[in-house]
Design a protein that fits this description.
Blueprint: E1 4-9, H1 13-28, E2 32-33, E3 42-47, H2 52-72, E4 75-79, H3 80-86, H4 89-93, E5 99-101, H5 109-115, E6 117-119, E7 143-147, E8 149-150, H6 161-165, E9 169-170, H7 173-185, E10 190-194, H8 207-215, E11 222-226, H9 235-243, E12 250-252, H10 260-265, H11 272-280, E13 287-294, H12 301-313, E14 318-323, H13 331-334, H14 336-339, H15 344-367, E15 373-380, E16 383-385, E17 391-395, E18 403-411, E19 416-425, E20 440-442
Parallel strand pairs: 1-2, 1-3, 1-20, 3-4, 4-5, 5-6, 7-10, 10-11, 12-13, 13-14, 17-19
Antiparallel strand pairs: 8-9, 15-16, 15-18, 16-17, 18-19
Helix pairs in contact: 8-9, 12-15
Bound molecules: S-adenosyl-L-homocysteine (SAH), iron/sulfur cluster and FE3-S4 cluster.
Iron/sulfur cluster is lined by residues 152, 154, 156, 159, 161-162, 196-197, 229.
């Protein structure tokens, strides 16, 4: 009988994509995917280290999988950013883990699953080869992530990512375009180019030029990208939003804070005035989203007030806001005593103020669309995304991959709801059932 694997994914799009690559490596080595950990011979946890809470999730998941191991001898592997950060220390804390691998070693999963061990050295930038996606595992889906670059060369003082993902390496543009073409041939209609700092791409052309090359792949319907650093926003990239019809009008451009003094402590390398100048050049239909950190070291009440003021006058479509979480190996941690920690209850109150401001605004923006028809790419029966990347639930019989028009009837901060009004364009290659389905579970 074929052995079965199960991958549990935490974290960002990079991790989701890495889980898919690891699943493909296991399929090639003769493993089979399973949708439930209970029936797995191998459980792989792909981890996130961005905040302490993310790390806690790993250990509570491992507690459950440890029981499986006792019951049926399931092998357990830990991949991703916590693996990269903790290396062998992870085995001291969780000795029942069989193997540990960092994000540079995705293709070694089958070998490690057999032999156990630790692979967390970074591969030299000039020797690094990006794993190639198997388009077959995306058959039956409307959307796919395509890796454009990996790593991060910035030094934001709060952030552990440069430590867990290493230096920036860009993937050759020809490779990216070939992968997109293969995905489109398998029925995928929308690609999201991903990287921790995707707009600093330098794999043979500029990022704006890469978007144009991807847009020239016959049959590609929609292009998105994430995530971008405000310092690398070029006028050429801004022009793409009006000149490349396949590029969707959504831009995630995390500001992190609305006070210059906090941005300086965060080492973000821009001021609010710089940021405002850059976003002012975007076409008005582009839905802008952002990340905000509340309660960063030394954040005063006045800085928090500046943050709220900035958020009030910036028309963000949506916002992801987080409580600051001190991370090992980061610049800020060395300054903890000097800058001072914000008491938890104060930080929580500030976070709530930021979130309620944005909740009200997102709801208002969504409500404005009631009665409108929005264009939705169907990702699941009755679910898809608008051009701006809003989640849309609808009643209708459209298939995965169809482009439909939905008449909006209701709105909540999280989604629009409505009725399928008409099919604009049927899926190019009808979504046949996935032959080699990958079990990739997030959360
Ligand atoms: N490369 C992206 C960010 C990736 S991490 C960028 O520069 O914008 C995703 C988000 O997690 C960040 O934008 C930040 O808001 C948040 N984050 C990162 N480190 C954090 C920390 N230590 N505590 C709280 N939030 C953090
Ligand atoms: Fe982290 Fe800053 Fe790099 Fe983003 S740009 S991944 S926040 S160090
Ligand atoms: Fe988390 Fe690593 Fe992504 S820390 S956010 S999984 S790059």
């Amino acid at each position: 009988m074929q052995r079965r694997y199960y991958i549990h994914t935490f974290g960002c799009q990079m991790n989701e994509s890495d889980s898919q690559r690891m699943g493909e490596a296991l399929l090639r080595a003769g493993w089979q995917a399973t949708e439930a950990a209970d029936g797995a011979d191998l459980v792989l946890v792909n981890t996130c280290a961005i905040r302490e809470k993310a790390e806690d999730k790993l250990f509570s998941a491992l507690g459950r999988y440890r029981l499986l191991k006792a019951q049926r001898g399931t092998r357990i592997g830990v991949a991703g950013c916590v693996a990269q950060q903790k290396k062998e220390a992870l085995l001291h804390r969780a000795p029942f883990v069989d193997f540990v691998l960092g994000p540079d070693h995705l293709d070694k999963v089958p070998q490690l699953a057999e032999q156990g061990g630790i692979e967390t050295d970074f591969i030299d930038s000039h020797e690094y080869l990006f794993p190639q996606a198997d388009p077959e595992t995306s058959r039956g889906r409307a959307t796919a992530f395509v890796t454009a670059m990996k790593g991060c060369d910035n030094v934001c003082s709060f952030c552990v990512v440069p430590y867990t993902r290493g230096r920036e390496v860009s993937r050759p543009d020809g490779e990216i375009v070939r992968e997109v073409a293969a995905l489109v041939a398998a029925g995928v209609r929308e690609v999201t180019l991903i990287g921790q700092n995707v707009n600093s791409y330098a794999g043979g052309c500029t990022f704006a030029e890469l978007i144009r090359r991807v847009a020239s792949v016959p049959g590609i319907l929609r292009i998105r990208f994430t995530t971008s650093h405000p310092m690398d926003l070029s006028p050429e990239l801004v022009r793409c939003f009006s000149q490349v019809p396949q590029l969707m009008p959504h831009f995630h451009l995390p500001v992190q804070h609305g006070a210059d003094s906090v941005l300086a402590r965060m080492r973000r390398k821009y001021t609010i005035a710089d940021y405002q100048r850059r976003i002012a050049s975007l076409p008005p239909e582009v839905a802008l989203t952002s990340d905000i950190i509340c309660g960063f070291l030394g954040e005063t009440e006045d800085e928090h007030r500046q943050n709220l003021e900035f958020l009030r006058c910036t028309p963000y479509d949506n916002l992801f806001s987080f409580l600051y979480s001190p991370r090992p190996h980061t610049g800020a941690i060395l300054k903890m005593a000097e800058w001072g920690e914000v008491p938890r209850e104060v930080a929580l109150r500030r976070l709530e103020e930021v979130q309620s401001l944005q909740r009200a605004r997102t709801l208002q923006r969504h409500r404005q669309r009631i009665g409108d028809r929005v264009e939705v790419l169907v990702e699941d029966r009755g679910f898809g995304r608008s051009r701006e990347n809003w989640a849309v639930q609808f009643a209708g019989d459209a298939e995965v991959g169809d482009l439909v028009e939905v008449l909006v009837e209701k709105a909540s901060p999280a989604a629009l709801r409505g009725m399928q009004a008409r099919v604009i364009d049927r899926a190019a290659a009808p979504a046949t059932q996935q032959k080699r389905r990958l079990a990739v579970v997030s959360g």
